[in-house]
Amino acid sequence: MVRNGEVVASGVNEVLSSNDPTAHAEMSAIRAASQALASPRLDGCTVYASGHPCPMCMGAMRMAGITEVAYAYSNDDGAPYGLSTAAVYADLARPATEQTMKVAYRPVRSRDHQHLYAEWQAAQSQS
Question: How far apart, in Å, are the Cα atoms of 15 and each of 18, 19, 114?
């Protein structure tokens, strides 16, 4: 990961070695950059990846404020090796009710506690 022409972090894919499906190189680089820059915001950073980042990594990069991504191998390049996430992108492009993973909004509210997000906000203001 680069910001202002300087490498601030790097990462490697550890999915198989860690049995962690989220241990993608991009996620590792995001975590390392956040620590190195002491911020969850990575505005102005560019990620350089070997392959087209998956939707999880793209989402994390967007959430962190990363402004640019460059990659060397496309989903088409990775497909013969089982390394394409094009099907996941295609599924996510469908309306939520037509996607293969079912997601349901089931509000649960405790009458004894304030709203969960209000509790989170109060905790943030105390730290």
Answer: 5, 5, 38
**What is the spatial distance between Cα 1 and Cα 3, in angstroms, rounded to a whole number?**
7
The rounded distance, in Å, linking the Cα atoms of 1 and 35 is 13
0.85 exceeded by the pTM?
yes
28 within 8 A of 20, measured Cβ to Cβ = no
List Cα–Cα distances, 16 to 78, 97, 115, in angstroms. 17, 32, 39
Q: Which positions are annotated as active-site residues?
A: 26
Neighbouring C-beta atoms of residue 47, cutoff 10 Å:
26
Query: Length of the chain, please?
Result: 127
Cβ–Cβ under 8 Å, residues 27 and 11: yes
In whole angstroms, give the CA distance from residue 101 to residue 89.
Answer: 13
pLDDT (mean) for 20-45: 98
